[in-house]
Amino acid sequence: MAALDDVNAGPEETVAELLRTCNAAPRFTAEVLAGRPYPDADALVARAEEIARALPWNEVELALAAHPRIGDRVEGASAEAQASRREQSSMTDADAEVRAALVEGNRAYEARFDHVFLIRAAGRSPDEMLAELRRRLDNEVGTERAEVTEQLAQITSLRLKDLLS
Questions:
Q1: Could you give the CA distance from residue 25 to residue 125 in angstroms, rounded to a whole number?
Q2: 146, 54 in Cβ contact below 8 A?
Q3: Predicted TM-score of the model (pTM)
Q4: Contacts of 90 (CB under 8 A, 6+ apart)
């Protein structure tokens, strides 16, 4: 956990490490750091969302590399792993049929778009995530990239709020 004061006045590398747990894109971290100090947590979160939504695709791809597949059992003790486990906690209630459909859907998605399926899992049931995966398989590449970027911004926001709480 970090306080706004820690983000505003902490050593750059320490704060950068915290920010990377919210969004692994280097540009995201650099731009949030460049905006310090923030008058309040809401301003910091709003700026983080704005930066995440404006990332070029190559930066979004770097952030995607830090995200596990929906439905995978996330291992490890890193902050990113802990966040993913919290965000995907509803998957513990998924039945075998939904899990199998997610595995197959992830394969099809990755074959079509060449990256992991990214969705804000927090607050969504396994069935909702599966329905979104299936819907998004029909997207054009540009449309899907926009959806991925929006999901990344939402995940970034949730993680930053959690970090500041």
A1: 27
A2: no
A3: 0.89
A4: 121, 124, 125, 126
Q: How far apart are CA 150 and CA 72, in angstroms?
A: 22
Token look-up 């704005």 returns 50
Q: Are 107 and 133 in contact (CB under 8 A)?
A: no
Query: What is the helix, strand, coil percentage profile of the chain, to 5?
Result: 70, 0, 30
Question: pLDDT grade, residue 21 (50/70/90)?
Answer: very high
∠ CA 81-26-118, nearest 5°, is 50
Q: How many CB atoms lie within 10 A of CB 156?
A: 26
Angle at 74 between CA 70 and CA 80, to 5 degrees: 95
69: region left, alpha or beta (phi > 0 left; psi from -120 to 50 alpha) = beta
Residue 153 near residue 59, CB atoms below 8 Å: no
Over residues 116-128, the mean pLDDT reads 93
Name the residue type at position 101: A
Distance CA 28, CA 16 (A): 10
Burial class from Cβ neighbours inside 10 Å (0-12, 13-18, 19+) for residue 68 reads middle
